[in-house]
Amino acid sequence: MASSMVNVFGARVSYNPSPMKGVITRSVSTTTRANSVSIRAEAINPDIRKTEDKVVDAVVVTELSKPLTAYCRCWRSGTFPLCDGGHVKHNKATGDNVGPLLLKKPKE
Could you give the residue ranges of the DSSP H alpha helices within the chain? Predict the structure, then answer.
């Protein structure tokens, strides 16, 4: 469920896709005063496989039209739900290690 609070001076949006334990909550705060905007980026992967440079999972699916399809898991993609590499900039800005979900067609 998404929740938001908007007033004259700013906005705060919180997102939590599931109430289940271990699911990541993401918050973005935006404050507007006069003509300036301040955005605070936060990591969206606080504890999953943090020893890896980038968390990427691959799933083999036999009924795909393309040999490889990358799906966004960082919510930064301009082509959401498909990955456009937006996680690279996010990871550099926050020190996060989120990466895409890869759906692969098995080799014949």
Answer: 86-94
Q: How many CB atoms lie within 10 A of CB 92?
A: 9
- Whether 86 maps to a domain, the answer reads yes
Q: At 81, list the tokens.
A: 């739900």
Q: What is the pLDDT of residues 24-44, one digit of tens each?
A: 444 444 454 556 666 677 888
pTM metric for this prediction: 0.52
Query: DSSP strand E in 22-96: where?
Result: 26-33, 36-40, 55-60, 68-71
pLDDT at 37: 65
User: Which residues, listed in sequence order, are joined to residue 31 by a DSSP beta bridge?
Assistant: 10, 38
Query: The domain spanning residue 45 has which CATH number?
Result: 3.40.5.90
Active centre residues (catalytic): 54
